[in-house]
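Help needed: design a sequence for this.
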């Protein structure tokens, strides 16, 4: 794994090493020791162990998020796409952070094989850019419905530029709970 720092402290893009030939390709999608070394190379400590893997499948236009869990069940997430593509976003919700309220987004796809490490203290969401997009994420704590919170995906105070949405090319398809999520200023944060 090659770690790449982002403008927001804590968020790390991980580029996989891919070995290919005429038969296809191979990549090591996760290695605990390699993950810890990659974070340490950027001056970060190792997170708690991963305890749960999640896999979602979404059609083009499905927008999931912005989700997070409050302590004591806050989750760090290592996310990737293994089929299709998604625009992935993390929002810093750590009070006192110099980047509090800022977002970072990038395309994750089966083709680019990029992963994003999102530590606890961030809201997370993604927009499926293709039908049959398969999104995988490892989490550092179990799902806890009492700790789960959401922030409005289209909060103008955050100003996420979801690809294709402003242009009218994509109409986000939301779950009812995401459609009713509060704006950042009214959300219960870290």
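Sure. Designed sequence:
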């Amino acid at each position: 794994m090659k770690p790449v720092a982002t403008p927001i402290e804590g968020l790390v893009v991980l580029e996989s090493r891919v070995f290919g030939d005429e038969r296809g390709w191979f990549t090591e999608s996760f290695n605990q020791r390699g993950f810890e070394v990659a974070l340490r190379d950027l001056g970060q400590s190792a997170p708690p162990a991963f305890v749960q893997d999640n896999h979602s499948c979404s059609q083009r236009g499905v927008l999931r998020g912005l989700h997070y869990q409050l302590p004591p069940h806050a989750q760090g997430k290592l996310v990737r796409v293994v089929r299709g593509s998604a625009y992935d976003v993390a929002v810093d919700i750590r009070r006192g952070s110099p980047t509090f309220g800022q977002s970072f987004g990038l395309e994750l796809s089966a083709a680019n094989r990029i992963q994003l490490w999102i530590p606890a203290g961030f809201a997370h969401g993604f927009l499926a850019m293709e039908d049959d997009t398969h999104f995988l994420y490892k989490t550092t704590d179990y799902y806890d419905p009492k700790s789960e919170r959401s922030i409005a995906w289209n909060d103008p105070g955050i100003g996420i530029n979801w690809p294709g949405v402003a242009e009218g090319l994509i109409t986000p398809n939301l779950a009812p709970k995401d459609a009713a999520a509060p704006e950042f200023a009214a959300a219960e944060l870290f």
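The helical segments are 32-41, 176-179.
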